[in-house]
Amino acid sequence: MDTSAHRSDFVNVNGIRLHYLDWGSDGPVLLFLAGWGCTAHIFDRFAPRFVDKFHVLALTRRGHGESDYPETGYDVDTLTEDIQQFMDVMKVDRAILAGHSLAGIELSHFAALHPERVLKIVFLDAAYDRSSPAFKATQAKNPLYRIPRPGEHDDHYSIEEYTATIKRGYPSLAVIWSEVFDTEVEHSVKWTPEGKVVDKMTDDINKAIQAMIDTYTPEDTQIQAPVLSFFALTDSANYVAAFMTDEQRAQVVEFFDTVRTPYDRAWIDQFQRNVPKARIVVIPRGHHYCFLQQEELVFEEMWKFLVE
């Protein structure tokens, strides 16, 4: 259920219609960008906390939620142009950009192309190089890609069934599930003529986004604006599921504790070298959705960074 006090509206930009949320208020614009598969509603709980000093907005990118689903335009240049044209239509000359996960690519590219339009940047567990051979080699060892998830190919005829399958198959989401994710699902699915509940995002769009992630090299060294970057070091317990065997659980824990976390620590060091003036907050045993699971910590650090 959508309970956040905001205005929900659409803009026509770059030949498509994009959905956005506006919490209003005065002050500099704080624009939130969601991760892959998420909509502006993922910030329903977090974004309103900033309205005391900022005009808070959140944008849903193409191919997501209530925005349009064109067959093309999932390259980094087009996605970034969508953001620029959104700011133009909204008459926003300069903004603070805060992005989660996939949005880190858009933040990096936007800051490189349009430094004059960026006041500050906040990476919400988003400042990673997913195109590097080291990252791909690390992910190739991830046992989760080899463990079937129960019900992932089943048909669903209600949102309740659809949601239950997500929670069962993705324990990392189940541990933080709340009304925010219920709202996310409501805006991200559709009903087929046969009455099935399916994701609005097509396989082709998913593949196009994945191709962009696999090939984009971060332009962090070109960022001129002040940067705050949160890095959530994975808590392996969040990825252990009831449907796994003891051996599979052990493999998952070993991967995150001995492979993924050391890689992440090495990348954090590299990011600090790339952006030497960046303020970095490392969250031990954190969650990828750190602005939800570690909400107070993220809010406090972000607030200090934005108002100074």
**Oligomeric category:** single chain
H-E string = EEEEHEHEHHHHEEHEHEHH
**Count of helical regions:** 10
In CATH, the homologous superfamily goes by the name: Alpha/Beta hydrolase fold, catalytic domain
User: Class in CATH?
Assistant: Alpha Beta
Q: How many domains, in number, for the residues? A: 1
N- and C-termini, Cα separation: 35 Å
Please tell me the overall pLDDT: 96
> If you compute it from the alpha carbons, what radius of gyration comes out, rounded to the nearest whole angstrom?
19 Å
Q: Please state the overall shape, judged from the principal axes of the Cα atoms.
A: globular
Task: Kindly name the structural category.
Answer: alpha/beta
The major sheet is characterized as:
8 strands, mixed
CATH topology: Rossmann fold
Number of strands: 10
How does CATH name the architecture? 3-Layer(aba) Sandwich
Fraction of residues in β-strands: 15-25%
The neighbouring-strand order within the major sheet is 1-2-4-3-5-6-9-10
Instruction: Kindly state the percentage of residues in helix.
Output: 25-40%
Low-confidence stretches: none
Could you characterize the architecture of this molecule?
The chain is of the alpha/beta class and 308 residues long. The protein has one domain: Rossmann fold, CATH 3.40.50. It is 38% helix and 20% strand. The chain contains ten helices and ten strands. It has helices at 76-89, 103-113, 133-140, 159-169, 171-174, 179-188, 203-215, 246-274, 290-293, 295-307, and strands spanning 7-13, 16-24, 29-33, 55-60, 95-100, 118-124, 189-191, 197-199, 227-234, 279-286. The strands form two sheets. The protein has an eight-stranded mixed beta sheet, sandwiched between helices. A hairpin with a 2-residue loop joins β1 and β2 (16-24). The radius of gyration is 19 Å and the shape is globular. The mean pLDDT is 96.
